[in-house]
């Protein structure tokens, strides 16, 4: 019996080893399955625009995965995006101080650490890192881009422009657009302060930075109206060029058009009446054709109603509504129709309905970002949501322009 037990010992040991190995495999498979599930759930949340849940799942995935430099770097980035800046700083600092990593990996960790400091508001620390990184050729592009954003965050546009001009050869189109808008911000301030020569220089520099940007052209028109009140023809030429380049700018250009005619002493507007000038009508017709703006069409209809005939104004609005249904156009049409009613009660009913429509229009946002979709009733040249420049435009919708 004892001999039989002795012979069974190797079999028992082999069985124990086999079961233990299978148990380890099962645990590894279970862990791997959990990792994969977290990753797939993260992807699913990302696809469905559920950003916070996606970040949580990706963090869980990276925490469970075997840590590598790349995964640790990505984990720190996710911490920063989720607002856990302290954890991001701690992780990226450890990577930057790790003597076992390659030099280029240390540089990447330093750049991410600078991004962490910017998110935490520690701009002096971020600036010190980035100024060192700018001197490294392979990191210059990324470092310059972050340094420009840092000075933007400080609202120090002069420094941002200086860095951008020095390293213009490595700037991306989006960074060049940022520099263009920094010039425009300074030009706007100069215009308000009455420093017209300085504003002219800054506007020219902005245009040179990005030839296709409409903001410098709009500012140039403002400058011409302040500096040379008689330069109406040049302003009208600029308005025509801007309208041809970007048909979403109708409301902006309408304001400039009004100023161009009102600035002339013989066309001062003393009440709600529009400038009585055939050239103003011609400019409105051209602008409406190029932009299709509801605001411009309403202005043209009001001109026709005041100086030609209400029938012509109504016909213009009806044709525009058939081509592109719009509540603002309909409201203007109702306003004209109410003036035709001989019965005071009918006229009052139409005006009450018009008031309801106008109240509905007032509730909706006027501007939206073409990048992230952020909506606002105020115009911002930098989107408050995605922080991109020159992406806010008047909305083109049934209840907007």
Concise structural overview:
With 401 residues, the chain is mainly alpha-helical.
Q: Biggest β-sheet, characterized?
A: 3 strands, antiparallel
Rounded Rg: 32 Å
* SS class: mainly alpha
The helix content is over 70%
Mean pLDDT: 79
Compute the number of strand runs. Answer: 3
Q: Summarize the helix and strand pattern as letters.
A: HHHHHHHHHHHHHHHHHHEEE
Strand order across the biggest sheet? 2-1-3
Mass-distribution shape:
elongated
Into which percentage range does the β-strand content fall? Answer: under 5%
* Oligomeric status: single chain
Low-confidence stretches: 1-9, 11-15, 17-50, 264-271
Sequence-ordered SSE layout with sheet pairings:
Elements: H1 2-47, H2 51-64, H3 69-81, H4 85-96, H5 103-120, H6 123-133, H7 140-153, H8 157-166, H9 173-193, H10 196-209, H11 215-227, H12 232-245, H13 250-262, H14 278-291, H15 294-307, H16 310-323, H17 327-340, H18 344-363, E1 367-369, E2 375-376, E3 392-394
Antiparallel strand pairs: 1-2, 1-3
Helix pairs in contact: 1-2, 2-3, 3-4, 3-5, 4-5, 5-6, 5-7, 6-7, 7-8, 8-9, 9-10, 9-11, 10-11, 11-12, 11-13, 12-13, 12-14, 13-14, 14-15, 15-16, 15-17, 16-17, 17-18
